[in-house]
Predict the 3D structure of the following.
Amino acid sequence: MKKKKKEKKILYQLIFSAFLLFSNAYLVKANSDILSQDSTGKYCINTEQDYYNFIENIQNYNNKTVILCNDIDISDVPEATSSFGGILNGKGHTITYASKEAKENIAVFPFRINDNGIVENINVQIDESYAYNSETDEFQTVFSRCDGIAKGITIKGNVTCIYDDEDTDVYIGAIEGNGTLMDSSIAITYD
């Protein structure tokens, strides 16, 4: 009886192997760079790593809706290589940014929000971050550039600016661009 069960098992394994071989079927490892989706098809940022993956693959989310599903803490934000033309909805959650090391770019949203882009309903808390100015005379602390719409954004925090040329004027801003800022509050202290 055991011999027949073993023969059936081997036969099933052979049939399955033949199916894979002749049907051009193959196994695909899930791409961890792609955000998960909720039941309505919106892409979800649940963790700090999800946020970094969103930024590094931002071109994949143009004309899509991305939602922040939890409060997250970030520090080493990568710079985006493309602009964003979708919707980023924070759903009232908070992104807390802290950088103890001086950096030239400390933008919480290090991507250009293009004409079609919307960032909304997000709280930003900047905890004692250091912005270093050496080769540029300007930097942003929240948005790299917003040419779309930012609405329902609350920004609070403290930024210490370090610069190495006393004769250079430094331009500091929470937001740059030709976009629209609506129903928002910005309270950043710069030292």
Summary: The first strand starts at residue 36 and ends at 37. The chain has one domain: 32-190. Residues 24-30 have pLDDT under 50 and may be disordered. The CA atoms of residues 12 and 30 lie 26 Å apart.
